[in-house]
Every structure is written in C-alpha cells, then in structure tokens.
Amino acid sequence: MSVTLYVPADTTARALGADRVADALRQAAAERGLDLTLIRNGSRGLFWLEPLVEVATPKGRVAYGPVTPEAVPALVEAGLFDGGQDHDLALGLTEDIPYLKNQQRLTFSRIGVTDPLSLDDYTGLRGFEGLKKALSLDGQGIIDEVKASGLRGRGGAAFPTAIKWQTVHDEPPGQKYIVCNADEGDSGTFADRLVMECDPYMLIEGMTIAGLAVGAPQGYIYLRSEYPLAQKIFNEALRRAYAAGYLGEDILGSGRHFDLEVRLGAGAYICGEETSLLDSLEGKRGMVRAKPPLPAIQGLFGRPTVVNNVLSLAAVPFILDQGGQAYADYGLGRSRGTLAIQLAGNVKRGGLVELAFGTTLRALMEDFGGGTRSGRPLKAVQVGGPLGAYLPESQWDSPIDYEAFAAFGGVVGHGGVVMFDDSVDMGEQARFAMEFCTVESCGKCTPCRIGSVRGVEVIDRIRAGENRDANLELLSELCDTMVDGSLCAMGGMTPFPVQSVLKHFPDDLTRSRGGAPC
Amino acid sequence: MYKHNNQSGQALSTALSPAQQAIQDEVDALKHTPGAMLPILHAIQDRFGYIPDEAVPIIAETLRHTRAEVHGIISFYHHFRTRPAGRHVVQICRAEACQAVGGRQLEQHAKNALGVDYHGTTLDRQFTLEAVYCLGNCACGPSIRVGDEIHGRVDPARFDALMDDLSATVVEVK
Fold first, then answer.
1. Which CATH number describes the domain made up of A2-93?
2. pTM confidence score
C-alpha cells in the first residue's frame, strides 16, 4: 500500500516539533511495510494546528493537528494512513477547515499545498504564468497592469507600487535595481517569512516581473539574519530557478536578463527602512538617508532603484496572470486587493489570514483568532508592529483599511496583529516602545537618538510617582517632538504606542509599580 | 602592515599567521562583490564564530576603508560579535508578541537559570545569552533561537529542559 503524507517544514512547524513528527511517521510506516511518500510541504499558516499532518485520500487531503511525536502511535492506530477520522486530532478535509475556507487567498493560494522547492508543483498551480504574460508585454504594459490593480506597498507605507515602478521606468536607461525588503522586523509579522519558506518561486517571479517592467537586470533580496531557514530554502529555490532558465541571461528563451541574489542583514531593525536598507546593502552602517532624492531616482549605488516589500512583489504574479482588475475587485476605497493579516501574541488560533481589506479587527480576533490563548479577556491590540498604536476595544470595529486606520491614528503597517489579555501592564508596554527605539535607532537624528533615551527616563519617573504631572506633560511634548522632528518612521512613530497608552490606558502608566493607583 | 611590495611590485604575504591568512582568503573571495562589506563580515563570523580584532586591518586595507570605518560598521550591527561566544548562542525574543505570552518572565528565568545577563557567557562557556527582536514565530511564542534552530512556546520548564539537552550533548571532535 502506498501512502502520501505532508508534514510542514516552515520555521513555526519545526519550532513545534515537525521534524520529530516526520521521523515518527516514517518509523510507523516502515514498521507496517508501507510505501510512504513523505512530502515536507510549506505551512498552511494555521499555526495553532502545527505540526499539521495531512494525508492524501481519494476525496482530497485530510488533516490532523496539532500532532506531537507522542500522538503518532495512537493516530496510526486510528487509521491515519488511510485518512481515518476517528481521533481527537482529526480535522477532516484540510480545505474545509473554516479558518482556511473563510479566507481569500490570492497571494498565499499555494502555501502549504506544495513542496516549496518543487518547480513542478509551482507551475502546476499557475506558477510563472504571470512571468510569461510579462514577457509578452513591454515595460509600460506591465506597469499599467500593476496600476490597474491598485496595489500599494505592503511593507507599511502603502505607497502605490506602480508609481514607484513608473518613476524608475522613466529614468534614462542604465544600471537599475530591484531591491526586495525582506527585513521583516515587526513583532507579530511572519508573512514575508512564509512567502520565502513556503512559496519562494512566487517572490522570484514577482521580482523578475519588476525587473522587466523597469529595465533592471539585477535584483537583491535583503533578508534579515533572524530567518536562517528562509535563507536556506530561498537560496536553494534560486539555484533551481537558475538551472531551469527562469533567471539569468536568457529568461525562458526570451533574451531578457535578470539576476537575483540574497543579501543577509545583521540584526538591525532600522534596516527595514528603505534608505537605511540601501546603505546597508552598499556595505555601510544602516543610516537613514534624507529624502529627496528618492530611491527611485538615486537608490542603490546611486542608481534608480525599486524598493518593495516581499508581499508587494509577491502580489505581482497574480496581478499579471489574472489581470490588475481581478486584484482590484477585492478591497474597498483606496485599499485594493487583499491584506495578509498575521494574528499573533496572546491568541488562541494564531496564524496567517489573507482577506480583502474591509474586515474588522474584532471579527479577526474573535472569529478567526478565537480570543486569547490564556482565555482571559482581551485588553489591547497592537497593529502594525512596534511603531503601531495600542488599540483599545472602542477601536476594534473599524474596518481594516489604510485610510480608516489613519483616521484614528492607527497603523495597518505590515498587517501584524498582536493581542494582549488583561494581565498586560500598558505602562510597561509604553516604556518598551521607547526602550526599543534606544536599541534600534540609527542615531542620525537627535529626536530619535536622544528622545528615546529621555522617553525611557521620563516614563520611569512617572511610574515611580516622581513629579508625575510635570513629567506627563514632558512625555507628551517629547512625543510631539519626536513625531515632528525625526528623519524617518523609527523616531517619528515610536511615540504612537506611547501616545495611545497615554490616551487610552492612562491608569496603567500612572499606577505605581507594586502599588495602587494614586 | 601585513603585506609589502617587493621590487617587482608583487604583493608578498610574508607575515600572515594562519588565522590572518584565513581571514585574507575570506576577504579576497568576496572583495569584488558589490557592497562586499556585510557578506565579508558574515563569512568571517561564520568561519570563526566572531570577528577577530585582526580582521579589521585586513578588511580595511583590502576594501580601501579606514579601520575606524570598519569598526563603525561592525559595531553598528547587533549580529556581529567581536569576542568568541559560548558553545551555544541562546537568543531570547524580547518583542511584543512574545511579551504577550510570558516573554518577560522567560527572559528573567533565562538570566537566572544561566546566571548571566544579555551578552554574557556562562563560566563553563556552554552558553552565551543574547536578546533578539522577533524570530517570526509570533503566533507560537515565547520563542528562542539556539544556533539556527527556533523553538516555540518556550515556558521556563521547557527552557530548562532544552538547556539540559544541550549541555548533555557531547562535543564532536573531528
């Protein structure tokens, strides 16, 4: 009897023991003399169910999770190899799991379905169709398609992708670059990592299309050093893509040229800011540059450069394959398409949720997330990474949309949603926002470099009950100075979480540590 | 200082120790790469486990930088270390998603259990403790990284078990 099993091999599945589960399954199959094909697929992004084991059956793939090595014997006894469902961990058909079924996966349609490194799997699910389309168009034709999609930068700044491309396209011919920002430093985010570990050819395809669009023969992916597995998987994908003629001097026999290389960061949050990323790629300290000149005009090594986030570039193959309008059909207002929301922190069912813009935070946290992992009431949620505001319950019903969030001082950012239960001390969180900035500031501008250190001091004094009113006023002014006077978003947005605590959770800030509110 | 030119103008590497030669080899292999500095620093750290002081003048001379610039670059990035680490580098995620599920308690526990603060190395040189800001495992924290392995849902008991396992493994001598 032959059996095909899937055991994910992304960072999260492995962090929860997927390798040992795979070993236990191999051993159990061997003991039964089964002809086992065990595929290490990507994760479906349903992290609370990892390691999520799937078995191919005539009706489709059925799932079990979360599977521990210790649970394997009982699962096998209950008929796992035949897709038997008589077990507590049996989840039925994978595609019917509501968390997955209720999503709108345009970008992430293949993750967890395929072996990430299999070119056959990728092309079998419309992989490289977008590239073929792009090869039939001229640069302007590609850009027009992206323009029609309404795609905006998914890194956080939400700048229209097609306008960046147009600017680089319109610069005189010569050396130009595509730079992919894979310095996914925001806590609560892992979508870039999922792309690189679970569907790497999608990013290769997206970057190649960008190169064709603007006339750039060279691309770099700036990947954070905290993602060693993504680096390993992606480099292998690059090797195979070159060997198969999807990259290099003569892409698919078209005579067009695009080279791609991964460069590793070195543990600096600020290098997620595009200009400091460029300095880092050039081999310098990752210092923020003043803009203008825009990177689209003077970017890497002084040449016109497209700097896009992983998710922006990953959206491009779908847009070229299905047409810009097909992407724009999702979403609302000026936020078109889908957003990869990442449910993280104190969440019962954490993972990746790709949905059209417009859903509410509450629906995400409750319907998808299932509330907190601790079972205690939710108190606050930080959306958009360490520079995003902490949102109180009164703001959970606003639709997720760049403009709607901006209207109340929120940040959609890279789509990270970090949930906190009622045991959180928001004063501690405000202090951490400033502390993080002291660690990660590049040091170029004073409001950020000095302001963050002062911020920690002043918050400590407030929390110690020292001259409280005067220090609260000082903190408020300090936040304004940082917002108005910093060169980039690091110093300019570090106050957002602090200000949100001042506004919505002031008691946590003024409560003496270990004592009652005074 | 490590090279001088003989009369025919050829570089002679006379005074290089084996370690310096190894560093020079790493630098030479990458020096023509655009933006070679970070790839070179990674290569040296991957080979030696840290960036030895003697690498600075070699990199500076080869890439035509000042030593001060090279030092400034190394010290800017948290990833690069200039002193050898213990046998295992243990990174504890300090970021918000992990804080929301007990990351702060884990940090304190790790410091107590290993008896060192961040950047410290245990006396037996088994462990070096480092902070990290996000490992991308944010739905299943608290997260730690040991070498290139990420571990999720690490509570104090699991941390102790992991450290015990690591202490028990025998160093492979080749």
1. 3.40.30.10
2. 0.95
CATH of domain A119-327: 3.40.50.11540
Alpha-carbon gap: B135 to the closest alpha carbon of chain A (Å): 6
C-alpha A439/C-alpha A83 separation (Å) is 50
| Tens-place pLDDT, residues A277-309 | 999 999 999 999 999 999 999 999 999 999 999
Structure tokens at B10: 């050829």
Residue B70 and residue B19 share a domain: yes
For residue B153, the enclosing domain spans 88-168
Question: CA of B73 to nearest chain A CA: how many angstroms apart?
Answer: 5
Q: Is B74 on the interface with A (CB under 8 A)?
A: no
**Per the CB < 8 Å rule, is B101 touching A190?**
no
- Whether B94 and A185 have beta carbons less than 8 Å apart is answered as no
The tens-digit pLDDT sequence of chain B (174 residues) is 444 444 444 444 568 999 999 999 999 999 999 999 999 999 999 999 999 999 999 999 999 999 999 999 999 999 999 999 999 999 999 999 999 999 999 999 999 999 999 999 999 999 999 999 999 999 999 999 999 999 999 999 999 999 999 998 765 554
Question: CA A353, A355, A361, A364 torsion: positive or negative?
Answer: negative
ipTM of predicted assembly, 2 dp: 0.96
Contact A11 B135 (CB under 8 A): yes
- Does B141 share its domain with B99? yes
User: What's the CATH code of the domain at B117?
Assistant: 3.40.30.10
Topology of domain A426-510 in CATH is de novo design (two linked rop proteins) (1.20.1440)
| Residue B96 to residue A418, Cβ atoms within 8 A | yes
Nearest CA in chain B to A344: B139
**What is chain B's percent helix, strand, coil content, to nearest 5?**
40, 15, 45
Q: Which of A264, A224, A272 is nearest to B36 (CA)?
A: A264
